[in-house]
Amino acid sequence: MDRAVIHGSTFATNDLAMAAGIATLDVLESERLIENAARLGARLLASFEAMASRYEMIKEVRGKGLMIGVEFGRPSSLKLQAAWHLLEAVNTGLFCQLITLPLFKDHKILVQVAGHASHTVKLLPALVITDDDCDWIERSFDDVIADSHRVPGAVWSLGKTLAEQALKARTDHDLSQSSS
Asked: Which of 48, 98, 86, 92 has the alpha carbon at shortest distance from 70?
């Protein structure tokens, strides 16, 4: 019983964890990773802001260092508005999946929707990113976003498929609820 009230902790003293932490801080400093993140993050932000002036569905670009968010929103042209509203009627924020899926599938770039029903995708590249990596990211985003502004186009075909699957899932769910 004398040990019954002793509480262990994941975050208690651990020599290996302390050595790993010190090694990480050494690498951050010696490889100037914080400075690299600031420089290349500013580069990516500037590139995405330039895209926002060319693409009507980019509403805002924000970030700090390599934590970057690209927010999409309702377009102004009628053709794009119709496609946008169709997706939004099925599921708020579905448009962002039309950006994330081809970025990963076609360009091997992993981005994530910032949250449920969100219109923002977030990019969090590794701190060891290079200028060549930025070139690749910028070209890939430009390609996918340009395609999202072409109706009909590959992105909107994907959107149609996603919308059909979402509606089918909703119908199947409603049918199962009414039969129980």
From this structure: 48
